[in-house]
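Feature request, filed as a ticket because there's no other form

It would be nice if the structure record came with a short human-readable summary line next to the tokens. Right now we just get the raw output. Example of a typical job, pasted below so the devs can see what we mean:
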Amino acid sequence: MEYVTLNNGVKMPLEGFGVFQVPEAAVCEQAVSDALAVGYRLIDTAAAYFNEEAVGAAIAKSAVPREELFITTKLWIQDASYEGAKKAFQISMDKLGLTYLDLYLIHQPMSDYYGAWRAMEELYKEGKIRAIGVCNFYPDRLVDLCVNANITPAVNQVELHPFFAQEGAIATMKEFTVQPEAWGPLAEGKHEIFTHPVLTEIAQKYGKTAAQVTLRWNVQRGVVIIPKSIHKKRMEENFAIWDFTLSDKDMATINALDLGHSEIIDHSAAETAKWLNGWKIHE
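Raw output as currently delivered:
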């Protein structure tokens, strides 16, 4: 495993395990337990995933020392305010069964996320969170927050894969010392990514799979990845990317697959904003 050092000096694994769309408690707990057994140390969840308790249960049963783990959860839009963030953070901590959090992220750049950020800055200064950051902040929103906040976000988790490479967004993040992190690093299975002819041809050179090449491409760009699977064999495959390096030519070939837009979600669309704001995770 390799690590990146965030803008506050905290070390973060370059590869982690995500639990998006794994709401069933028993399945999620087993998946996290398997991931920890494989060697993953970064576990990424969110209040809106409805599985923080299952993640916490797996952590509690694990023999891995807490200081070796890097646990992330996220603040949902419904709780995006100063007071809302303080309350939501404690609820998440109770569900996870943790005394401190490694990374807390604003899940979407919507509602009163500036109020939420002030609360997160305070929680960070109190030592309850080791790093704070954001998700899905396009360059304009990220820059606006960076130049107006007291603490620059440590991480911006956005959609990043060969078909939506976001080189410009990554350049902006690096300019402001924000670490890029990829959700959907395997494009949520779209574009027949596991059998894509370009990726498969490159993979054959290295004795790897198209998925492994795809994940390796992102980490070589300095992007943290959080692939998800509930199957241990696939977890092991996704984790076996540290024994080879893609050539500059192969990196460029993969870069050329970029479509320049997402085919999963358009965060700039009015309908997306309506849908996400209407998604309530509690009464």
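Something like this underneath would help us a lot:
The mean pLDDT is 98.
The longest strand covers residues 70-75.
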